[in-house]
């Protein structure tokens, strides 16, 4: 069915604002007025993206940056009306729509995800207190409860070190594991994990029925470690540190 005239006008108006180089402006609106809308909409979106991805913005020249944001602005179909979700929409554009560009740095998507995680955790509405756990429980014999505001992210590039003075062309020999969590003061904190602590977090995250001891014994087996008691003692220390930080809320009751 044909759209009503007023709806068609709205689509034409919005199409011009999103991509004025391709879509002509309405013929009965003065360009001076249209310019206000073009700049207002684009500048608002560009500002949110720049603030949400400050490292990526600092590494990208003005021409390349605005070309990328304009491409997102004109082509991406956002699924949320909230300004707070613009960063997630931009990340989706980078991961699923932008495609490979010769001038893009190889770490583009991973860096963007790393920067998005901070905002996502800072604004997450999940309440860890709503999850039942014994905060003083035995972390070896009990089943540790991870905070829903603690996420582990693994990257091929050391995204936490990338900046104007360090822009790697090749992925690291080993992945970078980062534990990102929001503490009781609502600060978002990043911790770099070694392979063993990353494996411990992964086992507990993927199997909530696993006790701390079972997870550490599995790690001992995977490492074929000659002194399992050393691995278990070190793992318990990590679990205790995580409990103090609120990453581990306790054990299942």
Give the DSSP E fraction (strand runs of 2 or more residues). Answer: 5-15%
Unreliable residue runs: none
Number of strands: 5
What count of domains describes the coordinates?
2
For the record, the CATH class of the largest domain is Alpha Beta
CATH architecture of the largest domain: Alpha-Beta Complex
The description of the largest β-sheet is: 3 strands, antiparallel
Helix content: 40-55%
Major sheet: arrangement of strands: 2-3-4
Give the ordered list of helices and strands: HHHHHHEEEEHHHE
Structural class: mainly alpha
- Average pLDDT over all residues: 94
Overall outline = elongated
Descriptive terms for the model:
253 residues; Outer Surface Protein A, domain 3; three-stranded antiparallel beta sheet; two-stranded antiparallel ribbon; 9 helices; 10% strand
Q: Could you walk me through the main structural features you see in this protein, from its secondary elements to its overall organization?
A:
This protein is mainly α and 253 residues long. It has two domains: 1-104, DNA polymerase, domain 1, CATH 1.10.150; 128-253, Outer Surface Protein A, domain 3. The chain is 49% helix and 10% strand. The protein is built from nine helices and five strands. It has helices at residues 5-18, 31-52, 54-59, 62-75, 86-96, 108-123, 195-206, 212-223, 228-245, and strands at 144-146, 150-155, 176-182, 188-193, 248-251. β3 and β4 form a beta hairpin. The N and C termini lie far apart (59 Å).
